Amino acid sequence: MYTLPNKLKVFALVFMVLGALGIIAGFLSVPKTTEDVAAMMADAHHGQGHAAEGHEMSNHEETHEGEMHMAEGHHAEEAGHDMAHATADPHQEHLEHVMHQIQNRPWSALYIASFFFFMIALGALAFYAIQYAAQAGWSPILFRVMEGVTGYLPVASVGVLVLLLASALGLSHIFHWMDPELVNPESTHYDKIIAGKSGCLNVPFFMIRALFFLLGWNAYRWLSRKYSLADDTAQDQSFFKKNFKLSAGFLVFFIVTESIMSWDWIMSFDPHWFSTLFGWYVFAGMMVCAITVIALVTIYLKSQGYLEEVNDSHIHDLAKFMFAFSIFWTYLWFSQFMLIWYADIPEEVTYFVTRIEDYKLPFFGMIAMNFVFPLLLLMNSDYKRVNWFVVMAGIVILAGHYLDVFNMVMPATVGQSWTIGVPEIGALMFFFGLFVYVVFTTLTKAPLTPKNNPFIKESKHFHY
Q1: CA quadruple 219, 222, 224, 230: dihedral, nearest 10
Q2: 115-143 confidence digits (pLDDT tens)
Q3: What's the pTM value of the predicted model, to 2 decimals?
Q4: Gap between the Cα atoms of 398 and 290, Å rounded
Q5: Tell me, what's the pLDDT at 41?
Q6: What value, to the nearest 5°, has the Cα angle with vertex 89 and ends 83 and 91?
Q7: pLDDT of 417
Q8: Quick check: 450 and 143 in contact, CB under 8 A?
Q9: Which of 109, 206, 361, 390 could form a disulfide with 424 if both were Cys (CB 3.0 to 4.6 A apart)?
Q10: Is the pLDDT at 296 greater than 90, yes or no?
């Protein structure tokens, strides 16, 4: 049985506390009135004057310089805010536009970090189901690690649901389409495109779908874990067969609900834009992150003297999946980007124009981290067997896919006022600490090696 070390527990708790403080600081630092925004813009002008004289601008001043240009050339949908109280004064509208974008930033940072770790747990659940449905012989020795990672799913589900509910109740305005003025034909803010999608994009149906998805995913997670533990003491293979059938059925449910989830929870940030590849694109990122975390947890446990039967062939296979899904993600990214960019339809291409013009560093950095680095680090078969090489590649991959989620959310919710500062780092630290604590606590609940799986002997003696 695995025992949670006190150092790891303290490590996780420290991250959670520091992260919570960062989240609170992020919410407290946003401007409350347009006068505050005007003062920030004045500071930015002052900072620009000093920069022209040869003085180096601080990161803080650069952030406000970006805030000053926020409304220039951006659509209302990118603001992600409530325009119901906009006035007829263009200058006042500009200030309110900037204020709502800045106010969206801590909510967006919280949502990005929450969704990032949620998709790791959900991706691990899908990978686990694939192993059962395929009756894979190499992976049963890793099943408890996968179950440990999926142990975060119930906690993550609550977190995501709370943030979705906060938007539905009007506490946050990151989902721009939830503004009732946009579907009111008598309003000056009436949006014909969003109104045309209101049969699907309406708050009650949106929340019902979210609850249905979360209940379905968590129900499979609970049942599969139950059958897996029961299989350890079973006298026959009945529980394995139940898990096999359950997993095959779940994968059908998952591939449909995951696509709709990606449209609802990510693509709807840009309600004028759509991509038929988007569900697969999110799926690819989800899977590569999940497999990477499974590999990292496995390597850590083995370094602590656990999972003695795990050998470099198991690590090699995990690294192969990391490499394969990184290439798959790149294929989907390029297919989506190339078709939209080449067609140059204004309603479609604006999605990438915004990101290329305003998010150059995270946009192109994300591509390098998610494709170039995995390609160079994991192409060689021998490197896939070297633990520290896999760990290094895994850290780059996870950072790259965090930026991927960042790029999918921030341009639509905060426009040019983006930066990676206290709110983003605080949210990331909090959910990282929570993830580590829940996953490793789950690992203490059962033996790390399944006992009665029909393929366990094959897995223990797996060599490639």
Answers
A1: -140
A2: 999 999 999 999 999 999 999 999 999 99
A3: 0.88
A4: 9
A5: 64
A6: 90
A7: 79
A8: yes
A9: 109
A10: yes
pLDDT at 66 exceeding the cut of 50: no
75 pLDDT above the threshold of 50: no
H/E/C letters for each residue in 366-401?
A: HHHHHHHHHHHHHCCCCHHHCHHHHHHHHHHHHHHH
Residue 115 CB contacts under 8 Å (≥ 6 apart), including other chains = 160, 265, 266, 405, 409
Take residue 26 and report the two structure tokens written for it: 């992020």
Residues 31 and 459 sit within 8 Å (Cβ to Cβ): no
Give the position of tokens 């920069």.
51
Closest CA to 287 of 411, 421, 126: 126
Please, is 36 exposed, middle or buried when counting C-beta atoms within 10 Å of its C-beta (0-12, 13-18, 19+)? middle
Residues 6+ apart with CB under 8 A from 135: 244, 455
Residue 102 banded pLDDT, cuts 50, 70, 90 = confident
Phi and psi dihedrals of 80, rounded to 5?
A: 60, 35
Instruction: Quote the distance between the C-alpha of residue 233 and its chain's center.
Output: 37
Q: 298 pLDDT exceeds 90?
A: yes
Q: Which of 8-17, 89-98, 243-252 has the weakest average pLDDT? A: 89-98
- Distance between CA atoms of 365 and 94, rounded to whole angstroms? 31
Q: How far apart are CA 439 and CA 287, in angstroms?
A: 17
- Report d(CA 330, CA 156) in Å as an integer: 27
Long-range Cβ contacts of 240-243 (<8 Å, 24+ apart)? 240/452, 240/453, 240/454, 243/132
* Confidence at residue 81, expressed as pLDDT on a 0 to 100 scale: 43
157: burial class by Cβ within 10 Å (0-12, 13-18, 19+)? Answer: buried
Contact 69, 417 (CB under 8 A): no
For position 82, what pLDDT does the model report? 43
